[in-house]
Structures are given as structure tokens and as C-alpha cells.
Design brief:
2 copies of one chain form a homodimer. Chain A is α+β, with helices and mostly antiparallel strands. Chain A is built from 19 helices and 12 strands. Chains A, B: Its cofactor is FAD.
Chain lengths: ~600, ~600
């Protein structure tokens, strides 16, 4: 099997760290208990392992292809998508009234992880469709919801996000695509969109493009952008498909990775105008798009966890099989499997620690989202929403940054074979490289993290989390295992130091953002990484407490968790201090900000 | 121009850091003065920029190809190689008596950097040829030298290193290729070698393969390996080419990067035996191969510097051109070039600092090598040789590890365009990925660094370098600029801390290597990286002292050096503490070493 879903670790994160019991006590989630979790994950694992994982290499070797405006997905993808649709997987998290299963995000999240680990390129299509569904449910009219959402959930149709234009990447203020009202409630859309993931393909009968465009006389900048539905095929009153709309794929990109996922250049309105329908109110398009973006950003964070885990699994398999050199401790006279060598064990343990930590944090974030949506008490909802929103840029930014490092270590474990494409390790290194870029680069996440998530509330949420970390630090200290466990001591020591670094940086950001914004934003990515490291370290502290008390129930699993927590403490957490130093010494016009444009 | 050789910074490193005056005072290097340096570098720059750089993308798009045993290099490469040969570039560092120019390694090193920065795939052919020349000069008979070396230096022929076999990668004890004596002084060689860089091609009329093989009844393991010359075409007494030898390229690899460089599977002796000639003594092959390896390892370290610089230059060019978003400090009302944004400046400055630091350290190492070869005093030679040997694994391991990070940052600066292959940034990310693997993985470098370079002399060389670092720290403190310069203060503070971390780790390695080798070797890569960071930080301290005193002579250049040193101090040097922590807490059977094979 080329991918084995880590169901046991997922259930550990769901049950012990994210707190499934709390989620299943929310209104509407009563059935989402431990048995449901096990059943859903087992079924998702089967589908991912058996149907999607074998197609991953195929997608790299036979990318989706373009000819005369038609995009044909990698062989096997269309049939796999049909099975995906029939299995009801697109609807896991969406409401039952539109055909979904209405499960909590906490249970949808491992499904997303498995989907992406087994086949990142394939999974992008459902990920974008999820975003389109979210935006329609939030801002669409009831008629729009009824027209589009059930078809998207059933997998008959898929969805896309159309933001980027050649001159407007991270800077959506520069969007030029225009939408002209036709007097009948519809619009004609004209413009060029690039980097449209699964923007054209043959896996579904229709594609629902959600498109940012400007109406006539709209204000300049981001306050003049509206959101439109532009279906590939117009939809008749009875729901059947009508005329082909004037949106055409003029090319797809030749990319470093995720080659099976067609990245389209879409031309709107070259033949008279593409028919579009306004979603929600005019000029509020960016706001609605952010609904899609936030769902998608969390999803991309899970892609980071997913590709990291897949790279880890592949490296472990190779390291157990490849025999090379005698052990350095003289414990054998002949060559041994390279997993016996300390540096290979270091690489594998580091890959594992980074991946498990990122998984734990993302699942915890998912539970906050569920509580934020469903809790009976509005204040509780607000508190959890704030924490979730603080965590989204971290889940997106940190999980994807580490996925590149993990995939690179995966290549390294393979030695020379890692550089040979047929081995397959290099695909993860190439695929992962997009994750820190799309749905907002790490810098964009970090800007959000500093601006909306830290400065706006004066660091209030950050301090709530710091207080929760303190409780875990205290619990480590008070635990019966502390005296005898090197893992407890190491995690206590390094999490305490990391927590202090994070607290200092939050204060630094609050203090200097106004007076020296350049220095703060120069350190913003480091602040995001620091938060990622400390928050994942915190999850390991919580995991260690559980593992210590349950160790006898499953010595191998919990023993591995103790060792992995220990590894995270000594290999990853110390980086917090380096990140802190890189941030707090930044000043405008000094050091890295002193180089003028001409000097570069 | 897609590549502009950084001649000014190279000359700074040569003259001010490596000390060209000291090298040009050595016997035989009298002509290697500042004028020569300038002239050689200018000419190498012209050739690299004009002839080789434009072919770099071509090599990625049209890799060298195999058909029926014949390998055809990327279009344009054969003609470029002819120009390379005619320019005398293969002989820069080799002795005049065989047709070389006999220049110091200190002046050959920037040439190697430019060659690799302009075209990494192309440069591998000369790099391997250099190794073959070194091995022949060291261990060959006079007749062998006369037969092969002038032709290799003239570029009529090229050289290869044949070590790896399918079952013998890092572990050369497993080499199975056999060599049977024919009674006439020649041998028949039989076996399969893989991963042979430029192992077959059409750029030269002959290829001189240097091959590791076992003679009958040779001892097992690495003590039974001998080195053989196996030319593609046998050489007649008069030096003309004779019969085609029984060595054939049966395939070349499909690789992640360096695609223009054919990586051959060579079959020796399938048609009766490949004629080979023993070099030096039987069973000492590994020793001779290490001569090639050490030259090649330094060369691969330079490849790291080279690809990092090229990735940096490309990212700077894009960042100056791409307009996106308003400045965060409100200094402009319209969108600006992204180089104005603090996070982009952070990425570019970090790329620059890593690259310049690695360049400086490598050039300093090259000067040590020159003194070690030519100084009149044997004790001085021995001291410098010991320092050079300590630095080689650092130059190889650290420069290549950072090149991956720099190339990845280069992609990130380009945003979505970075992921599109036509942009070209992704090529560096793919190409760089081999550098930490071939000529010994980073772990192999780190093993060497711990074993042969630290333990064997009880840390003596490490302590010599630590004492020299102390002198530079003291000089920062005593400098007139200290009080007023944030760069001086930051570098003083972080270099002091980094130096202490390195010293602690050296002691830790010395103390525990025997009792807990697994822990030491689990931390060996971190020790190598720590040394790389501190030693490069030290070069920045030395550079800062020069820049402060010369600033008025060239405010832009020296001002940039001050800023870059400051950037290295706050962005890179603090990582020393994290690395120290990851090393000194390692214990066998704890943390990352506690996971059993089954638990992975």
C-alpha cells in the first residue's frame, strides 16, 4: 500500500486533544460520537488508500492536458471522482437540507487530510468546491442555493474560485474583470483570470465559477469588487443544463508539481460576454470571497499535514528496506537497514514530530470552529471563533512551510534514489512547494496574523492561548511522571522557554506595530512560525499527559507518542528562541531593512 | 543578462578575507596578485555570463538524451564545451607542466562558482574531470600522467568517478565490480556502476573513467578496493585513440533536476571485459578516490554557493519589477514593487546573507589549501591543511543545505509565478536538491566532521578556529564603531553566543562520542550546521571590520556589507542556540532515538 491513513493518530487527536465529546454535545452533532468517528475514518481511509493513492503517481506522469479549450483529466481521475461523488464525500461537512451529511468539521478534517495525502492534485477539486458551497450558503439567495448547492454536493458539478489576474495576485485591489448589468438581473462578465485550479476539466458535467469583478462605477480598490456566479453551462429553470457560457480555458500551466490539477487561464466574455449572477450585495465580493478563502486556507493547511505524512511514510518504508553500512555503535558487524543509523532516525523522527504536531493543532482548530458554529451560548461561540481565526493563518502558514522541509528530508532519506523521479519521493518535494504560495502566501498569512488576529484585539486571543499553555506547563510539572521522565522534563523546559518567547513577541508586535510597521512586518513570518512551533509544542504537552496516563493500554502507540513529544521538545521547540531573536532586534532601516533597492 | 557574476564581492572575499597577498607570497604563486585576480575573474565572468548562462534553461527543457548507448548532450553544450576547453578553463588550477595555468585554488574557486552559477549541469563535467586529474597526479605513474592528464586539461577528454553500484551507495564496502589481472599489467573489469555523472556524452572524444573495483582475493570491505583507469577508447602508444573499450552506457536517469547532466548506468565487461589499468597500489583505491572526493566535495560546496547566488539574483530582479500592494508603512498611496515590502526584503536579505557568508568561508578555505600546498614551512603547511580539512565538510554540507533553503525562498519571492516552470525559479529549487546528496550526503559529511575532523585530533583544530573567532569578537568590541553601530553590537552579541554554542558542542562531542556514539551521530548534522553558521558569522565579523574602515571609499558596497552582516547576525546566527540544544540533549534511547523500528 503506498499510503496508509494514520487513523489511530487521527483518532487520538480527535478524541484526546480536540475533544470529540465536547463537539458531539453540540446541537446537531449528537451522532458524531467516537463510533461514528471510527466508522467515518475507516471508510475514508479505505477509499483514499485504494482508489486515490494509486493514481497519485499517474497524475504526476500524465498531467491533465489541454487541447482546443478542452481539458482532459489524468487517466483514472474521472472514474475516481465519480466514486468520490457517489460515496457522498463532497457533502461530509455540508448541511443535510442540501444533501450533505452535516458532520462536524472535526470529522471532516481527517477526511480532507486522507484525501490530500493520497492524492493532492485530485483533492484540490473538492477543496475548491467546498469553498464555493460555503460562499453560496453564506451569501447566495435561496434560489441560488437551491440551484447550485445540491449539485455541487452531489459531485455532479464542481466549483472554482476566480480571484487572480495577471496584474492582481496578492493585491486584489488591482482586479480589472468587469461585470455589466443587463437589466434582467444578470450581468455580462469580461476579463482574464489566471491560476484557476480545476478551472476546466471533464470530471463533472458543469463547473460553477465564482468570479471577482467590478460593476460599472464601482469604487476603486478592494471596496469595488463584487462576486458573481458564472457557470460553464447556464442552468435552466428546471435545473437542466442550458447553453454553453462564454467562459473558455485558453491554456493550462506547466508547473513544478500538482501536475494532475489543471491550472487554467480563463477568458470571460471574448464572444459577447459571459453570463453571471451577482452573489449577495454589490461591492461586498471580497468579504464573501474571504469566506471561501478561510475555508480553503484551513484546507491548504491540511494539505501541508497530508503531504508531510505521505512523504514521511515513504521515507520510513525506504529506510527499513535499504541496507547500507554498519551501525556506528558497533552493535552489528554487517551492514544494516539505514533506519538503524542515527541521522536517518533523526530525520524520520523530525518528520514525524513536525507532522503529528501540525495535525494535532489543525484538529484542535477544527473543534474550535465547530463550537463557534453550534454552541448554544453566543459568548462561547464568539470566544471559540476568535481562537479559530487566530489559528487559521498558523495552520495554513506553518503546516505548509513545514511540509516543504519534511518533503525535502524525505528526499534526503532516499539518498541518490530520492533524486530519481521514478522513486516518487521527489514528487512530494515538488507538490509541497505550491502550498506556501496559493490561497495566500505565508507572508499574506503572516500579515493577517499580525493585523487582524493580533493587533485588532490588542493581543487578547493570543493571551488566552498563552494562559492555556501555562496550564499545560503546570500540569507537566505536577504530573507524577515528571521526576522520572526525560520527556516530561525536556518538554517542560523547552515549552516554558518557547511560551516566553511567544509572549515577548506578542508584546513586541503590540508595542511597535504603529511606530515601526516595517520592522513588525519584516518579522511577521517569523512570528507566525514561532506561534506554530509553540502551539504544536503545546499540543505535544497535552498529548504527553494523556500518553503517560494511558501508556499501559497500548505501550507501542503511547510510547511512540512520548518519544515523539520528546523529539519535538529538543529538535523543534528550541527554534523558538532563534525566531524571537530575529524579530525583536528588527528596526526600520537597520539590518535586513537597511539594504536599499539599489544595493540588492 | 540572466546571470551577473558578483565579481566585486568575490574580490572582496579574495583580497580582504582569504588574504590574496598571503597566497601570492607563496612559491610559484608570485603572479597571482590583485591584478591577476581581477583579470581572471573578469574573463571568467564574461564567459559564464555570455556563453554558459543562456544555456542553463535550455538544459532543463532539453535534457541530454540517450539512444542505443549514445548520449547526446543538450543542444549548444558541445560547442560551449569546446569554447571552455579552448579558453583553458579546465587547467586553471592544474600544473603548467601538463598544460595547466597553475593558479592558486583561491583564484580557481571563483571561476568554479561562476561556472556553476551560470550552468550547474554543464559545470559538473569539468568538476568530475578536475577530480580525475587530481587522482592521476597523486597516484598515477608518470606514464599514466603523461597519457591522460594533458588531454584532460586540454578538454579533449573528460573524466568520471565510478563509485556507486546499486547495492553500494554511501557504503563502499559493498562494491562488487571486479578486476581480473591479464598478466600484461592490464586488467579486465566487470560490473555495473550507477549514478555516473557525465558517464557518457558527445562533448569530448574520449572519457577517462576512474573505477573502483576488487581484484581477486582482495580483502573484504573497503580495504579490498582498488582504483582503475578504464578509458572509453583505449589509447595507443602514440597517444591516438584505439579500440572502443567494453564499457557501455545502458541508460541515463530521469531526474528531479540538473537534467542536462547525464547520469549514466555504466556496464563494464558485458562483451569480454573492459580493459583497465591499476592506479597506484592494489587495495588503496579508496584512499585515492578520497583525493578526488575531497576536491569534488569542495567543488560541490561551491555549487551550493553558486546556485544560491543565481536564485538570489533572479528573485531580486523579479522583486524589483513586480508591482503589487501598497507599502505597509503608508509611504505610498499606490501599489509598489514588491521589493518594498518588508517580508520580501527579509527573504532577499536572508538569501543574500546566507550566500555571501558561504562564499566567504569557502574562499577562506581555498586559501588555507593553497598555503597547505605551497608554504615553505612544513609545520605551517600541516596547520593549514588541518584547517582546510576541517572546513571541507562544512563547505560541502552547509553551503548545499543552505542552497536548498535559498532556492526555495527564491521560488517564494516569485509567488504563483515561481511555481510555473517557464519562470525559471523552480529549476534552481530542483537543481539544488541533489547537492546535499551527491559526493556524500550531509550525514556523510557530518560523520567525517565528527570522526576524522573533530575526534581524531581531540578537537585541536576546532579550538584553533575558536581562538581565531575570539580575536575577531574582541576586535569588534574594541573597534571605534562599536558604540554607535547596531550592526557591530548585534554581530558581537550573536557571534559571542554562537561561538559559545559551538565550543560547548565540540566539548560535548569529545566527551560522549565513545560512550554514546548514537547520540553524537544523531547530532552530527546539527553540529555541522552549527559550525557553518558560526564560521560564516565569523567571516561577517571580519568583513564588518573591513567595511567599517573602508566605508567612505565605496559607501554603497561597504554599506551593503554592513547591512548584510547585521542581517546575518540577527536572522541566522541565533539558530546556533537551537542547534546546540538539539545536540546536547540527545541521549541514546531517548527522544528521537527512543522510537523503535517498529514504531516508525
Amino acid at each position: 500500500m503506498s499510503y496508509t491513513a494514520p487513523v489511530k493518530d487521527m483518532l487520538f487527536a480527535i478524541n484526546e486533544l480536540a475533544g470529540l465529546d465536547r463537539v458531539s454535545s453540540l446541537p446537531g452533532f449528537e451522532d458524531a460520537n467516537a463510533e461514528t468517528a471510527q466508522a467515518v475514518l475507516d471508510e475514508a481511509a479505505r477509499f483514499s488508500e485504494e482508489v486515490l493513492a494509486p493514481l497519485n503517481v499517474e497524475g504526476d506522469r500524465n498531467p491533465s492536458s489541454w487541447k482546443d479549450g478542452v481539458v482532459t483529466a489524468t487517466p483514472g481521475f474521472k472514474e475516481a471522482f465519480r466514486q468520490y461523488a457517489e460515496g457522498g464525500w463532497q457533502g461530509v461537512v455540508h448541511p443535510g437540507e442540501y444533501g450533505g451529511q452535516g458532520l462536524p468539521k472535526l470529522l471532516a478534517t481527517p477526511c480532507i487530510e486522507m484525501l490530500n495525502a493520497s492524492n493532492l492534485s485530485f483533492a484540490l477539486c473538492p477543496l475548491l468546491t467546498d469553498g464555493a458551497i460555503e460562499a453560496l450558503l453564506t451569501a447566495g439567495t435561496e434560489a441560488q442555493k437551491q440551484t447550485y448547492v445540491p449539485k455541487l454536493i452531489s459531485g455532479d458539478w464542481t466549483g472554482t474560485m476566480n480571484l487572480t489576474e495577471p496584474q492582481a495576485g496578492s493585491d486584489l485591489a488591482l482586479v480589472r474583470t468587469r461585470a455589466e448589468p443587463q437589466g434582467d438581473g444578470s450581468f455580462k462578465v469580461f476579463g482574464t483570470k489566471i491560476f484557476i485550479t480545476w478551472g476546466e476539466h471533464d470530471m463533472a458535467e458543469n463547473i460553477v465559477h465564482l468570479v471577482l469583478a467590478r460593476t460599472p462605477n464601482a469604487p476603486e480598490g478592494v471596496k469595488g469588487i463584487s462576486l458573481f456566479i458564472v457557470p460553464k453551462f447556464l442552468v435552466n429553470e428546471d435545473g437542466s443544463l442550458g447553453a454553453r457560457n462564454d467562459v473558455h480555458c485558453v491554456s493550462i500551466e506547466h508547473k513544478l508539481g500538482i501536475k494532475a490539477s489543471p491550472t487554467a487561464v480563463l477568458q470571460f466574455g471574448d464572444h459577447g460576454g459571459a453570463t453571471g449572477y451577482l452573489i449577495g450585495e454589490e461591492n461586498r465580493g471580497l468579504e464573501y470571497m474571504f469566506i471561501m478563502m478561510n475555508a480553503a486556507r484551513f484546507g491548504v493547511g491540511m494539505q501541508g499535514v497530508a503531504v508531510a505524512d505521505r512523504a514521511y511514510q515513504k521515507a520510513v518504508a525506504y529506510a527499513k528496506e535499504r541496507v547500507q553500512s554498519r551501525p556506528v555503535d558497533g552493535s552489528a558487524k554487517q551492514s544494516v537497514a539505514i533506519i538503524q543509523h542515527p541521522d536517518v532516525r533523526r530525520m524520520l523522527a523530525t518528520m514525524r514530530a513536525l507532522t503529528e504536531g501540525a495535525r494535532a493543532l489543525a484538529y484542535v482548530a477544527a473543534a474550535h470552529s465547530d463550537i463557534a458554529h453550534r454552541h448554544a451560548d453566543e459568548a462561547v461561540r464568539a470566544d471559540h471563533q476568535a481562537i479559530y481565526e487566530y489559528l487559521v493563518p498558523v495552520v495554513k502558514g506553518w503546516s505548509t512551510e513545514l511540509s516543504i522541509e519534511v518533503a525535502s528530508l524525505g528526499v534526503q532519506v532516499h539518498g541518490g534514489m530520492g533524486f530519481i523521479e521514478e522513486t516518487g519521493a521527489a514528487q512530494f518535494y515538488r507538490d509541497a512547494r505550491i502550498l506556501t504560495i496559493y490561497e495566500g502566501t505565508t507572508a499574506i498569512q503572516a500579515n493577517d496574523f499580525v493585523g487582524r488576529k493580533t493587533l485588532r484585539d490588542g493581543g487578547a486571543v493570543a493571551k488566552v492561548l498563552l494562559a492555556q499553555i501555562d496550564e499545560s506547563i503546570e500540569a507537566l510539572w505536577e504530573h507524577a511522571s515528571f521526576e522520572s521522565s526525560a520527556a516530561f522534563q525536556a518538554l517542560h523546559r523547552h515549552l516554558t522557554a518557547g511560551r516566553a518567547a511567544l509572549a515577548n513577541v506578542v508584546e513586541f508586535v503590540l508595542e511597535h506595530a504603529k511606530g515601526d510597521p516595517n520592522a513588525i512586518f519584516a518579522g511577521s513570518v517569523a512570528y507566525l512560525k514561532l506561534a506554530g512551533i509553540v502551539l504544536c509544542g503545546w499540543q505535544f504537552a497535552r498529548a504527553l499527559l494523556v500518553a503517560a496516563s494511558k501508556r499501559d493500554e497500548d505501550p507501542s502507540f503511547y510510547g511512540a507518542k512520548v518519544a515523539t513529544a520528546h523529539c519535538f521538545a529538543t529538535q523543534i521547540l528550541p527554534q523558538a528562541l532563534a525566531l524571537e531573536a530575529s524579530i525583536v532586534e528588527a528596526k526600520n532601516n537597520e539590518g535586513l531593512l537597511a539594504l536599499t533597492e539599489a544595493q540588492f
